[in-house]
Write a structure and sequence with these properties.
Elements (H helix, E strand, L loop, with lengths): L10 E9 L4 E8 L5 E7 L6 E3 L5 E2 L3 H11 L7 H17 L4 E3 H15 L1 H11 L5 H19 L1
Parallel strand pairs: 4-6
Antiparallel strand pairs: 1-2, 2-3, 4-5
Length: about 160
């Protein structure tokens, strides 16, 4: 690692710690030439599968799309941004552990729906109304009734 201050090629690690729930390693480094200290973060580079869209097009896995969908669904809801990041990271982890090179966008959507159902039921219904393209009030009502039944079954 080159020093960001003097560009010297030799640095030493002064301290290492786990960061972001063990997903990264935080290292304090010191330049052997100029003596400056700085912090680096290391994480494993894992390849995510490509996403097959409903129209057949393929694109790279984009965690920002997942995050943006969650933020829209959770707008004005009492959910912390840490919880959103946990959902995004969980979906990325699920995609990686599938062990496939390509994954259907519908599978990612279902994972998102499952996560939202647990996180915030109002956001779940919001997301479902767009994701499942509700055509009328009856489709909306059916989804809410399923949610109520699932909640009742879970609580009993």
């Amino acid at each position: 690692m080159h020093c960001p201050f003097c560009n010297a090629p030799d640095t030493k690690v002064v301290d290492s710690r786990l960061a972001t729930e063990g997903a990264q390693v935080r290292r304090r480094r010191e330049c052997l030439q100029c003596g400056e200290r700085y912090t680096t973060y290391e994480s494993a580079e894992l390849s995510l599968p490509r996403v097959i869209k409903s129209d057949g097009n393929r694109e790279r896995f984009d965690e920002d799309k997942i995050r943006n969908g969650l933020v829209k669904a959770l707008e004005k809801r009492p959910v912390k941004s840490d919880a959103i990041e946990q959902v995004v990271n969980g979906i990325m982890k699920q995609a990686m552990t599938e062990g496939v090179r390509e994954i259907q966008s519908s599978q990612i959507g279902e994972w998102l729906m499952d996560s939202l159902r647990e996180l915030d039921q109002v956001a779940y219904v919001r997301f479902a109304s767009v994701y499942r393209s509700f055509q009328d009030v009856n489709a909306f009502r059916e989804e809410v009734e399923k949610l109520v039944q699932a909640t009742a079954a879970k609580n009993s």
